[in-house]
Amino acid sequence: MGSLDHHHQESPPLPQDLKVTIQHSSLVFPSQETEKKSLFLSNIDQVLNFSVETVHFFASHKDFPPHVVAEKLRNTLGKILVPYDFLAGRLKANAKTGKMEIDCNAAGAVFIVASSEYKLDDIGDLVYPNPGFKQLIINSSFDDNLLEQDDKPLCIFQVTSFKCGGFSIGTSTNHATFDGLSFKVFLDNLAALAADKPLAIIPCNDRRLLAARSPPRVTFDHPEMLKLKMPFGEESNNAPIFDITQEDLDFKIFRLTPDDIANLKEKAKATVEYENSRYITGFNVVSALIWRCKALSYDHAKGKTPERESRMLYAVDIRPRLNPPLPASYVGNAVLSAYANAKCEELKEKPFSRLVEMVSEGAKRMSDEYARSAIDWGETYKGFPHGEFLVSSWWKLGFSKVEYPWGKPKYSCPVVYHKKDIILLFPNIDNDNGVNVLVSLPSKEMVEFESLFNKFLA
Questions:
Q1: Eight-state DSSP code of residue 258
Q2: InterPro entries, alphabetically (predicted)?
């Protein structure tokens, strides 16, 4: 199976300060006039008022030095803000309903040009989540004259050139605007327009497709959701989905090769009838392994009882699960939290195949009626997903497969903020079939997690 080091990687020495200088920042407006309107946001969009930042790294390209890319991207951004007019808008609360909407007012997206004193090779392993990557998409650096105090843009782009001629494109978008799948479509469309081609997919901006029913009908229990006590309209818009207490966390990357994943699938199949092996997917086996290690390491460190229940959450795309299905081009957030629940004793004693099956049941539960009930739940109670931890998967989103005129990214990754109740999955740099698992935990729990992880893979 290879040595212990094969699975997890100690933090390499990373330059935390990438020595980035902002050359220029400006607002970009839609290149044609767009209709002034309010865009309805679904109950799924409503709870996601925070920024998601990604960085896409590119090798140098003789026909596209960074200054040419920056100019081209700036022009392309103006063009894409026509079909994606809401990205140039601003969030506002509707005084009547107390809900957030997007005011499509063409106030603009932010575009930043920057340079680093490093070469791309100097900043280390791109897969490793370097906190320094925050400098490649800077949220707070606009000239104060550029924006009013409460004028928060929903979309920011930053092109940063490196000394070698390579460059990065950093993006920050408010999560209320896109989920991972629709952001990938946005990037495909951006790349198409940059190459002077038509849009790859015409976006469907009708978020009323996911409006609550009238009257709302909650037809299922939703243990994956936590009710908020406060009356609607009074809560802070940035209520935490998960625990945000500050504590010292260790973070490590556990690497699973395609062979490791194949072996996990074999372990799961060992105790399963052939007809049930449909649910033995890469995502399900990796999530089951993480769930076991996470729950048991917490119990061990905290001295909890085996009776304790552990709940894992993960996102499920509901586009194909609704009746009729949502268009694949639906732009807003069309993911809901699926859950798996078990006592820690079961996670320890049950065969691995049963854990994998429990994970798969979360997605199986997500029928049209369940999804509609969850959306109606949000109309009735106002609240947030709630579990011991969430598996957030960037593994198969395919951001690094987008073909720009200057080539595909060497690597694309989220800018990572370490939270102990969010475990991230993202692809290997050279092989999409392997996966990197980023875990942040207090050190006692991390020691236990690592030992369980290696023991199970051995």
A1: H
A2: CAT-like_dom_sf (IPR023213), Plant_Fungal_Acyltransferase (IPR050317)
| Within a domain: 158 | yes
Q: Are residues 201 and 229 in the same domain?
A: no
Cα dihedral sign, 269-264-295-239: negative
Same domain, 276 and 167: no
Is residue 154 assigned to a domain?
yes
Euclidean distance between CA atoms 210 and 205, whole angstroms: 11
DSSP H or E stretch at residue 282: helix 282-302
Question: What's the sign of the alpha-carbon dihedral 446, 449, 455, 457?
Answer: negative
pLDDT digits (tens, 9 = 90+) for 342-366: 999 999 999 999 999 999 999 999 9
Task: Considering only residues 219 and 419, tell me which one the structure prediction assigns the higher pLDDT.
Answer: 219
Q: Is residue 15 part of a domain?
A: yes
Q: Which residue of the set 71, 148, 349, 403 is catalytic?
A: 403
329 Cβ contact list (under 8 Å, min separation 6): 185, 201, 202, 203, 204
The pLDDT score that the predictor gives to residue 307 is 85
Q: Name the pTM for this structure.
A: 0.91
For residues 300 and 295, give the distance between their C-alpha atoms in angstroms, rounded to a whole number: 9
CB-CB contact of 438 with 426 (8 Å): yes
User: Do both 183 and 313 map to the same domain?
Assistant: no
Tell me whether residue 300 is one of the annotated catalytic residues: no
Catalytic residue at 175?
A: yes
At residue 236 the predicted structure's pLDDT band, cuts being 50, 70 and 90, is very low
- The secondary structure of 152-173 as a DSSP string is --SEEEEEEE-TTS-EEEEEEE
Task: Assign 3-class secondary structure to 353-367.
Answer: HHHHHHHHHHHHCCC
**Does 119 reside within a domain?**
yes
Number of domains in the chain: 2
pLDDT in tens, 102-147: 999 999 999 999 999 999 999 888 887 788 899 999 865 455 555 5
Q: Catalytic residue among 175, 235, 346, 418, which?
A: 175
| 128 DSSP assignment | S
